[in-house]
Automatic annotation (TrEMBL):
Organism: Maribacter litopenaei
Similarity field: Belongs to the cation transport ATPase (P-type) (TC 3.A.3) family. Type IB subfamily.
Name of the molecule in the record: P-type Zn(2+) transporter
Ranges annotated as spanning the membrane: 39-56, 68-86, 98-116, 122-139, 268-291, 303-324, 602-622, 628-647
Domain of life per record: Bacteria
Lineage of origin: Bacteria, Pseudomonadati, Bacteroidota, Flavobacteriia, Flavobacteriales
Top-level EC class: translocase
Length: 655
């Protein structure tokens, strides 16, 4: 059973770009209303003709409304809704696909005309056409969020060239160029903020409607809208690699990746439809050999009813629509599924394995505590430490140099690195050592025993061969980290595990703080992969792995469902994963599971509804106890109910 393929290009607001770059004075809202009216006009015309014809038949007030006049009247009523369906069925036959719903409807309604049941023939085709209109409206509504993303695609970029900002196509801007973004405009490319600060609407990227404040030198993403003041950005990616382009590509590709249920129904319809046709033929002719008072017209009428009831419209329409609604609902919540198959897969997950750094923590080191044991004031002690760390590119060094210390900056000279231990050099004529305990011990410096119980990363300082103090460095938990674990458990996930490359003591501390079932630190990427593979071998275990770094890519690929952090996560992790969390919030995992379950529930409700009603009406229809009107309800009525049920996904809320 084939349906017309949804073409996402139809949603592209740039398709006819260039013709009206200014306000052309047209009322586009009115134009849309006229377009919608034209869409429904054939069905309205057929309905009025049908109702009028039935009224004349019933009251028998016009004697001339008989014979050819009556046939022509109902034929005129039939053509506006019937001709497009017959044409579609004929095109399908020419392409080698005989058994489509268009073919079934054409045979059933033309057959009704052949035996003189003109009103019923028109009614069946009219209600089928109305069902198609409702289906298209529902699909368009489900695609609304994708259209919003397409609308978020920037049209131009103001780039600094030859001493001035000029408007160009974003695709022509190179990495490292400076662009300007005015108030209300979209950020055209990913980059680094050059201005002091920016207030951005990032709804197209993250699904979050509240403004996001970005500070100088922080990352900024294409598709965000500048809310306050003119800002400047240094580009870090080409347009084709920007966040908004990547999202569009993933969402559009997601519609092409069908779930197993959807694929099964399509295969089922391809087998089911020809069987129905041959059963209808049998129902028409076989009773001749078994029934004494066989009347061809009566058995043909029963066969036509059988055809209408059996049409698998409700299944073929509502199931893809259900999954499309699920994908759309997820996108609105800042979650991108790379296909309907992953909406199904996430419902089966019972074990969540997560990375630590960048996943449940911010991935940004901060000074947690400064312990000064020297004769210097704390600010001066930190000046010695910062002077040394300015010579290093390590993330911990960056955290230390961000410390605000009073007084003039010190300068370090003769700095050398001691492999695996730290730095040694001279500051203000004093010999300074900065590093771990091994560096201190190797230089004969006594370290206080209190440092042995510190779990966080620790940087020790010695000045002129005396222990001067230390600072502890820690990564911060994300704001919703505790909430994430709580909600994952509430979603019915039985086991939560943490696997990290960070040292085991830190991993265990974070794990205990978050109430995670089991944790292991100090792992290389291949170690994480081994752990996940072992988990997958356990019976009835379906694993989702959540990570953000390049080192997580192998595990994301190996897990049953790979979930990547889309904001701060690496491109490799995002490309490998099956689900992308655009907001970088681990609590979105529970939302993703809930959306998957809601989608699956609605899909199976529609399958049960379609089969249940058809079976109930099919048996009396074949026995001559049901008319074409009951057949219309069993087919089009159930299809409409299934569509309305699928549309519910677009209004659901998942906390």
């Amino acid at each position: 059973m084939k349906k017309k393929k949804v073409n996402l290009r139809d949603l592209d607001p740039k398709e006819h770009q260039g013709e009206h770059s200014h306000d052309d004075g047209h009322n586009h809202s009115s134009a849309a209303e006229v377009s919608n009216f034209k869409t429904y006009l054939p069905a309205i015309f057929s309905f009025l003709m049908l109702i009028t014809g039935i009224a004349i038949d019933y009251f028998d007030t016009f004697p001339f409304f008989r014979g050819w006049v009556r046939i022509i009247w109902y034929t005129v009523a039939y053509i506006p809704v019937g001709f497009p369906v017959i044409k579609e069925g004929w095109n399908s036959i020419r392409n080698g696909d005989f058994f489509t719903e268009f073919f079934l409807m054409s045979i059933a309604t033309l057959g009704a005309f052949a035996i003189g049941e003109y009103p019923e023939g028109v009614a069946v085709m009219l209600f089928y056409a109305v069902g198609e209109l409702f289906q298209n409206a529902a699909v368009n509504r489900a695609k609304g969020n994708i259209k919003a993303l397409l609308d978020a695609r920037p049209d131009e970029a103001l780039v600094y060239r030859n001493g001035d900002f000029v408007s160009v196509n974003p695709e022509t801007v190179e990495i490292g160029e400076r662009i300007q973004v005015r108030v209300g405009e979209k950020i055209p490319l990913d980059g680094i903020l050059l201005s002091e600060k920016a207030s951005l609407n990032t709804a197209a990227i993250t699904g979050e409607s509240k403004p996001d404040t970005i500070a100088k030198s922080e990352k900024i993403y294409a598709g965000s809208i500048n809310l306050d003041g003119v800002i400047e950005v240094k580009t870090t990616k080409e347009f084709k690699d920007s966040s908004i382009a990547r999202i569009l590509d993933m969402v559009q590709n997601a519609t092409a990746r069908k779930s197993k249920t959807e694929l099964f129904i399509r295969k089922f319809a391809g087998i089911y439809t020809p069987i129905v046709v041959f059963l209808a033929i049998g129902l028409t002719f076989l009773p001749y050999f078994f029934v004494d008072d066989y009347v061809f017209r009566d058995w043909l009428y029963r066969a036509l009813i059988f055809l209408v009831i059996s049409c698998p419209c409700a299944l073929v329409i509502s199931i893809p629509l259900g999954y499309f609604g699920g994908l759309g609902a997820a996108s609105r919540n800042g979650i991108l599924f790379k296909g309907a198959s992953f909406l199904d897969a996430i419902t089966k997950v019972n074990t969540v394995v997560m990375d630590k750094t960048g996943t449940v923590t911010k991935g940004v080191f901060k000074i947690k505590e400064v312990v000064n044991k020297s004769a210097f004031a704390e600010a001066e002690f930190m000046q010695y430490l910062m002077a040394m760390e300015e010579q290093s590119t390590h993330p911990i060094a960056k955290a230390i140099t961000e410390y605000k210390a009073d007084g003039a900056d010190f300068e370090a000279t003769e700095v050398s690195e001691v492999a695996g231990k730290g730095l040694k050099g001279t500051v203000n004529g004093k010999q300074v050592l900065v590093g771990n305990k091994a560096l201190m011990v190797s230089n004969g410096i006594e370290v206080p025993s209190e440092t042995d119980t510190i779990v966080e990363s620790i940087v020790m300082v010695a000045i002129d061969k005396k222990f001067a103090g230390y600072v502890t460095i820690a990564d911060e938990l994300k704001e919703d980290a505790h909430q994430a674990i709580k909600q994952i458990r509430e979603a019915g996930i039985s086991k939560i595990i943490m696997l990290s490359g960070d040292k085991d003591s830190i991993t265990q501390k974070v794990s205990k703080e978050l109430n995670i079932d089991w944790a292991k630190g100090g792992l290389l990427p291949e170690d994480k992969l081994t752990e996940v593979e072992e988990l997958k071998k356990k019976p009835d275990t379906t694993v989702a792995f959540m990570g953000d770094g390049i080192n997580d890519a192998p595990v994301l690929a190996a897990s049953n469902v790979g979930i990547a952090m889309g904001g701060l996560g690496s491109d490799v992790a995002i490309e490998t994963a099956d689900v992308i969390i655009q907001t970088d919030q681990p609590s979105k995992i529970a939302t993703a599971v809930k959306i998957g379950r809601s989608t699956r529930k609605i899909v199976w409700q529609n399958i049960g509804l379609a089969f249940g009603v058809k079976i109930i009406v099919l048996i009396p229809g074949a026995g001559g106890l049901a008319t074409m009107w009951e057949a219309v309800f069993a087919d089009v009525g159930v299809a409409l109910l299934a569509i309305f049920n699928a549309v519910r996904l677009q209004k659901m809320k998942w906390g």
